Amino acid sequence: MLSPATMPSAPRQTVVPPDTDAALREAAQSLEVAFLSQMFEAAGVGAVPDAFGGGAGEDQFASFLREEHARAVVARGGIGLAESLFQALRARVDG
Question: Do 31 and 67 form a contact (C-beta atoms < 8 A)?
Answer without folding.
Answer: no
